[in-house]
Amino acid sequence: MTANDVLRSLRYMLKINSARVVEICNLGGYLVLKNEIYDYLRSDEDPQFVACPDEVVAYFLDGLIYDRRGKDETRARPPLELPLSNNLVLKKLKVAFELREHDMLDLMQTPSFKFGKAELSSVLRKRDHPNYRECGDQALRYFLKGLTIRIGNADVKDDAT
Q: For a designed S-S bond to 3, which of 49, 51, 52, 131 qualifies (C-beta 3.0 to 4.6 A apart)?
């Protein structure tokens, strides 16, 4: 998936505005302007569309981890991993939302798409591991869609109580 697609999906999933995207990027250690975020979130067909650099999404994901789990000031910031890959997006979202393997598998399963435990294990490995496998766009899309549904349902439950 492109960095723009990932950023749009995360913004939609989290139900946040562009100003909040800027705040989260700042938490991750990247200074970005709101008008830049607007350009990254535009439709691909829009004449003012700008391709989002991988580093913006990488810093956003780091900021999301800090936002959801807190920042440990005693630990050094992890080095930025570029280029951004679907595998890295999956790993960072796993950390940010404190997901276990079975949670991730549940999010990705649909009647038309099956993703097994062995496949998930292989996409979560380090790139230099012999059993490493690239995460495809379809798998990441189903994961993001499942996470969006789960978060939406959590909001509904929170509103009911």
A: 52
